[in-house]
Structure formats: structure tokens, C-alpha cells
Amino acid sequence: MLLWLCCLTTSLRADPILIGTTQSPSPQSLHIEEQLRTVYNQLGLQVLFIPMPSERRLRQVSNNQLGADLFRICQLGDDDDTLVTVQAKLGDLYLQAFSLSEQRLTNWQQQSELIVVHVRGLKMAELTPFAGSRLEVTDLTQAFGMLLQGRADIMLEDQLSAEAYLQQYQLPELTRVNLAPFAVCHVLSQELSHLAEPLQLLLQAIQN
Question: Tens digits of per-residue pLDDT, 124-180?
Fold first, then answer.
């Protein structure tokens, strides 16, 4: 069955498929890149991973300017018909809340006076309810900057991207708490929707 799918989807396409990826790579994101490189190669396709901001990646996949996004939460495509989710779980990500003050993190979701910042397009944060004011920025540099400058009380980011960023730039230790875990999947543009099922089967095969 898998051999038949590989033969069916093999393309004469000379250019690699462009896949948006995080600007703050982590061991998990690099492992997912390797898995995806493997299964695309099995389909006779080359890929090129391009680091870019989260919201820009999502917009370009939605507009068919990028072929795919490395991973997003699996339910992303449920309310966006411009995106196609490959239904093979690639792992789990924890959303984390950061603050300069441990006390401020106590019941922060119920405190309407707080300013909560996160990167625009981070669906995990968008799905997280809270009573405070939501502030969306372009990238992690701006998000951490707002927090460290005291212009925001809480910052939301996925655990792996935040840890990679903190290690890269050696920022001061911040108080953090884990929120909900989210399963993540590979996401395709509509232009590559025909690859969703073959990629799903191949990913499930190498994970078993």
C-alpha cells in the first residue's frame, strides 16, 4: 500500500517544497524536520525549511505562497478551510505562561487588569481564555521585550520555542507555569492537499 502511494505521488517537480519552520529551533522541531524530510523523500519530493515568524508562516501557507508549515496544533484546520492538516500526531507542546513575578501568575486568567502578550498567529494562545487584555506582537523578541520592560504582565509561548529563545539570548530567569498540552500536526496549503493522505500513512509507519 505504501509503495503504491509513493509511486502515485512521485512528482517531476524540480523545485523543492518550501516548508515554514520556527525561528527558534528546538530538539523537537529538528526531529520533526528530519521525519518530514524522510517521508517527503519517500514520495520523491525535496523540501526546504525556511525559518520565519509564526504569523507570516501561517499566512503564506494559507495563500499558497508556502507549501506547508512544519507543525501547528492539530485542530488548527478545523475552522480554516485554507489549511489542510496531515492527521498524524507529531508530538505534544505545552503552552506556558511567563511572568516577572510568581505572585502575578496566581489565578492570572481571572484577573482583568493584566496585560497578556503573545506572538500573533500562536493558535494555542488564541484558544486560551483569560479576563485580561490581549496584546499580539510579531515575534518572540517583541514578546519577551514587552514582558521584561514591564509593558506586559504575562507572556504566553510554547515551551520548546521559549526555552530555545531563552537559551540563545541568555535572558534572565523568568517565572513560568505549564498550561494545557496541545497535540501538533504537519499543515499543508490547499495546493498540496493531495499529499495529506500519503504523508499521514508514511508518518504513521515510521512512528510505529
Answer: 999 899 999 999 998 899 999 999 999 999 999 988 888 888 888 887 778 999 998
- What's the whole-number mean pLDDT along residues 67-89? 88
C-beta separation of 71 from 122 below 8 A: no
Q: What is the Cα–Cα distance from 180 to 123, expressed in whole angstroms?
A: 12
Closest by CA position to 17, among listed 52, 58, 47: 47
d(CA 193, CA 189): 6
Task: List the beta bridge partners of residue 167.
Answer: none
DSSP 193: G
Distances (CA, A) of 146 to 127, 157, 182: 21, 13, 25
**Alpha helix positions (H), the chain:** 2-9, 27-42, 54-62, 123-126, 140-148, 159-169, 196-207
* C-alpha dihedral sign at 28, 177, 77, 200: positive
CA angle 20, 95, 133 (to 5 degrees): 100
Evaluate whether 125 touches 162 at the Cβ level (below 8 Å).
no
Rounded to whole angstroms, how far apart are CA atoms 45 and 58?
22
